[in-house]
């Protein structure tokens, strides 16, 4: 029996203490479990990610936080599921809209597509639609700035729902923070005759964002308070805590997984009830969520193979190679989503980790259709992989195949042969069903194989998606950790492209330098505008102006940090960063020399005394 690590067990609960980083909401806290993730081996990284993901399913211990399985959460899910059920029974002029920014918008798209497909399969009219801040381009790339616009959110929703009699609006904001979603929720509250708003997120309402939004009179918290006044009748809030992210603030990980678990449970239960003439019950919801908990356990029971993938991908990134996910079916969307998130999360280039889906935009089924004309970054079909990537593929690159027993194995096999002509660095993630006796000719051609077998069920494809999401999140996060992008459990080189990221950057600077928030903001602004002194027109400008300027610059947070740690000019900080291209090394070198400076100043002081 494996020995239990008690230090990890206590770290699991530490974040719940009121004294632990009290100035941050749960979604922005740093996870005590992962404070040394940057120095961990591939196997240990996977163990840490598993321990963090386990926090999603932790039972309610009667503390401040409600959890996924808390009665209050399940009860609200039940009410929302019953509302969906009613819409499915009488869909005329009705719509269920899922909306969010970044990953939350991408998951809104994934789920709306999945449940519309389920309706089409039953020859029913579709009732789902999605909104992602920034439009369909944001499904594949980072358009974080649109998150800050509450009016745009509201107008997009109003336009989408024109002429509808009844709309169930599901706004997803993991941090209870996106102004785009707040504007939409507020709009729903003002039109209760048509709209019923549901907010999904992972902070208590008292931790919803308090900052004012540009051109808007309410804060997110005030919108949530208004929803609370209507709670249970005309507005619903589903907000269990799932613990801090493994990489602080990276809500694409647990936030995304928990969003998928909660909403798929609600929608799948509503479908079953509506089409079997029964009603959604608490038990059905709980059983489905427990099913997802099993997905978590089954997936991480393959930790060694996940670690192999992560190590291979890490080596590729370290030597300037690429990681390509080649997927079939709905796993393609999971691959595209994971790859696209590396751009804002790790400041990665779109070619570093890239997803391709067998049928391209035909399989995507997004509102705006084929986006290939927007440039190479938007070329997502396997044929694009063959023409754009395959010719220059080498052993430096990692290729990961994602497919299931429902996909055309002959097609997978053809692709495997083409890739093998260029590289042997080929791996596969395959989901099969119990009793599946397929001959593993594909596995024989791969350097590593991760085969997961599942019991058959009507929702197994959603379980495959979650399992693949966990694996890919581990691969993309772990490989960037190995590349040296993370310091402790913070992404230091983040892109400061919206107000949430602007404030996160200031807090990271404060945590790592120990100086005041005001000094940190000044250092950040100097790095953004590339000036040694801050003129009045910069200090008086708004956050939107700062983030717009920051979006055209690189490495602003590392630059500001080096200036703060060494007390040097921007040009000196730049040359120090140039001599340490790996961000973690640069930070460590500066910390060592600043400690050295402090201790020699201390020595000097003690000599003087
Ligand atoms: C987070 C990801 C971001 C968020 C987006 C929305 O890992 O990079 O794109 O999804 O900022 O966040 P939220 O809290 O409104 O769901």
TrEMBL record:
<dbReference type="GO" id="GO:0030246">
    <property type="term" value="F:carbohydrate binding"/>
</dbReference>
<feature type="domain" description="SIS">
    <location>
        <begin position="84"/>
        <end position="276"/>
    </location>
</feature>
<dbReference type="InterPro" id="IPR054017">
    <property type="entry name" value="GKRP_SIS_2"/>
</dbReference>
<dbReference type="GO" id="GO:0004857">
    <property type="term" value="F:enzyme inhibitor activity"/>
</dbReference>
<protein>
    <recommendedName>
        <fullName>SIS domain-containing protein</fullName>
    </recommendedName>
</protein>
<dbReference type="GO" id="GO:0042593">
    <property type="term" value="P:glucose homeostasis"/>
</dbReference>
<dbReference type="GO" id="GO:0009750">
    <property type="term" value="P:response to fructose"/>
</dbReference>
<keyword id="KW-0119">Carbohydrate metabolism</keyword>
<dbReference type="Pfam" id="PF22645">
    <property type="entry name" value="GKRP_SIS_N"/>
</dbReference>
<feature type="domain" description="SIS">
    <location>
        <begin position="313"/>
        <end position="485"/>
    </location>
</feature>
<dbReference type="InterPro" id="IPR001347">
    <property type="entry name" value="SIS_dom"/>
</dbReference>
<dbReference type="Pfam" id="PF22198">
    <property type="entry name" value="GKRP_SIS_2"/>
</dbReference>
<dbReference type="InterPro" id="IPR005486">
    <property type="entry name" value="Glucokinase_regulatory_CS"/>
</dbReference>
<dbReference type="GO" id="GO:0070095">
    <property type="term" value="F:fructose-6-phosphate binding"/>
</dbReference>
<dbReference type="GO" id="GO:0005829">
    <property type="term" value="C:cytosol"/>
</dbReference>
<dbReference type="GO" id="GO:1901135">
    <property type="term" value="P:carbohydrate derivative metabolic process"/>
</dbReference>
<dbReference type="InterPro" id="IPR046348">
    <property type="entry name" value="SIS_dom_sf"/>
</dbReference>
<dbReference type="Pfam" id="PF20741">
    <property type="entry name" value="GKRP-like_C"/>
</dbReference>
<dbReference type="GO" id="GO:0005654">
    <property type="term" value="C:nucleoplasm"/>
</dbReference>
<dbReference type="GO" id="GO:0019899">
    <property type="term" value="F:enzyme binding"/>
</dbReference>
<dbReference type="InterPro" id="IPR040190">
    <property type="entry name" value="MURQ/GCKR"/>
</dbReference>
